[in-house]
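In practice, a research group might receive sequence data for several interacting partners and want a quick structural hypothesis before committing to experiments. The following worked case mirrors that situation: the sequences arrive first, and a predicted assembly follows.
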Amino acid sequence: MTGEVIAFFVLAIVAIMGGMLLLHLSNVVHMVVALVFTFLAIAGIFITLSAEFVAAVQVLIYSGAVTIIMLFGIMLTRHDDVSEKKQIKSSTLLAAGGVGAFFLLMFFAINGMSVSEPATNLHVDNTKRIGELLYTNYLIPFELISVLLLAALIGAIILAKRDDKQEEKP
Amino acid sequence: MNNVPLSGYLLLALVLFCIGLFGALTKRNAVIVLISIELMLNAVNINLVAFAKYGENPGLTGQIFALFTMTVAAAEAAVGLAILMALYRKRKSVHVDEMNHLKQ
Amino acid sequence: MDLTNVYQNNYLVVVIFLLLGILLPVGALTAGRLLRPYKPRKEKYTTYESGIEPFHQSWIQFNVRYYLFALLFVIFDVETVFLYPWAVAYDKLGMFALIEMTVFIVMLAFGLLYAWRKKVLKWI
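A structural hypothesis for the assembly, expressed as tokens:
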């Protein structure tokens, strides 16, 4: 057992526990807080995979921005009936069966996979090398990202903004 | 066991993806469905970064694509919640079961 | 393999800080639990000792327009992510990358301008 293996197991257990709590808890705010632990653990997993910059971005975007926007979405809507019906519906069983079948299929696919030697120099000047690649080889996707963000910003404003006039009328 | 094999990371990503998929299929609250989809995208990111290190041609390409996926996920969360706000204004509910306008 | 080990050992400091951060409040609260007197009474468990009894849950529904501030935060947070690698690798990239980044920022500035014109930025 090396430190890397121990770190992987601890992080994996934290991540899966967060996901399980998401399925089990009944209060929506608690669900989001449980998922923050999953996101942070995944950032740790990225560090063990020598992706420092991606780990920082994971903390910045997922545990920061996405969680905040989801909490806003919860606070802006009404959640009176916290207690969901406990009886198991047939659609839930169907979903569980489908997910289970998918899990088994992918599990056997993963087990049959050949292993190659890991790269050892990915962490050296990680951010700098990502920058060099991003602004030379992946220029078109980068500029498309700006178009995507612009479209998302304007579209979301149009969808969410309509309230003012409607609220003042009645 | 000297270091974690590739299949360990892939298995973790698979478990997280399945949790997200199950949540997206069974939860009634639309916000939680959106969060489950974020979890699925995050599991995919683990795969991308793991293959960037352990794949046949290791390099930074997988990490850069993980960055792009995160950006798309953030934009998706923003637009998805905006659609949810517009729906909530009409129906006063965030339950996916009740969003069946087209059925009636 | 040697380089990877050095890189991973650097993060040992982070782990130690995390453990300290968890242990310190846990230790302080446990010490407080052991040291403080424990005399429970019914009045102590109410929210206010005098006044109206609280009813309903503590969180209320906010106006939808606050969502737009969260939205702007998310979009420009994502923009920041792409500024970091550009700034770190600026010496090697030079003029062309500066033009790329200007295009990127101008695109998002259009979005900000649109939000401004739609009076999203006004705090009411």
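Before designing any experiment, note the following. The interface with chain C takes residues 67, 70-71, 74-75, 77-78, 81-82, 85, 88-89 of chain B (CB under 8 Å). The helical segments of chain B are 6-26, 30-54, 61-91.
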